[in-house]
Amino acid sequence: MALSPRTMRVTQELPMVSVELGEALLHEQANLRREVLLWQRWVRYLALGAMVLLSLLYSSTMQEALMPLALVAGGYIGVVFATARALDRSSSRAAQRWIPVLLLTADVGALAGFVYLSSTPQQFHRILLLGFLSMQLGVFYFGRTHGTLAALLTIVAYLVFALGVPPFVAGPRPAAVAVAFNVTLFAMISGVLIYTFGSFRERMDALRMYCKVVERGEAATLPQLGAERWPDELTLLARSFQSMHVRLAEQIGSDPLTGCMNRRSLEARLRSDLRQARRRGSSVAVVALDLDRFKEINDSRGHPVGDIVLQQLAGIMKVTARDTDSVARFGGDEFVIILPDTGWQGALTFAERLRRCVDDYKFGPPDATVDTTISVGVALGRGTDATSADALLRDADAALYKAKTAGRNRVFS
Are residues 209 and 353 in the same domain? Predict the structure, then answer.
């Protein structure tokens, strides 16, 4: 399936992906296509040998066909060998776009040539039968466009030899009605196979995109898998894969005490949100906070009470934050909240609202509550600036330090 780095979609249901992710997928696709074409050359050599042997064994004009068969075989070998050399020397995507089309044309031409030189016109329907092989391999490895082209070339080759070119082996031509019936039947079966294998190819590409998105940490653009109208085994595989990823993300990417994201997941999410902000020209706010004098709570009330306080603070942040925001425990009693698509005023308003909620809350066990406050630092990363995730976290931490040194229980930016 052809992909464009600017407007790439694996299927119509998937979200638009970044240019960087599109380039990574295109690079992987080019490498895979190159490997497929290189190993398929040996299949083509074996198929050529089988065709030559069958043509010589079952042709009624073996002597007359020997030289033409040799010319067809030699030309086909030349094309396969030349394209393999081109793939070895060049890894450019431009070369790999035209090489499959060239090989497909050579495949159909060679198959039609062997049938023409070894069969009577009444047996030219063998071109259609052998064309199914090229069509299925084409759509499975290279997508619907390639499979459709293979089917069209096969039909054209059959019509040319059945109705146009004088026969090499003497015999009556097939009736026009029989030719029309054969072409119609081939087109119907090809259409079903192209749709089926093409859909399979697209869903495999969707699964590949899912893996690449997870690998790069662009969680905001994760596609939905396994939502096909007519589910099959591949649908079940995609659903199992997505469930497995969600489960692993919960186990690896969350803090066991508070249920918030851990530092690793936070940094991956922040990088993803910054990429989204650059594409949309928006901004991302980072709110860093920690509990004031939390060590005194641990020392005077014990670590179990301190753990309760942290869990209660996490609950307040999750309730205050939006569904699109990310709450993470950065370490100890320090937390970070990512606010995508948020400017200065929105971030400061959120931070002040959160500070007031904490100030009014009674922490600790119901029978022995404890009062505490938070200090908050706010930083903003604009999509138009080349701000990194690490720099944005440092800016938020610096603002938090100013809030602490200025007397605590306040918001600084």
Answer: no
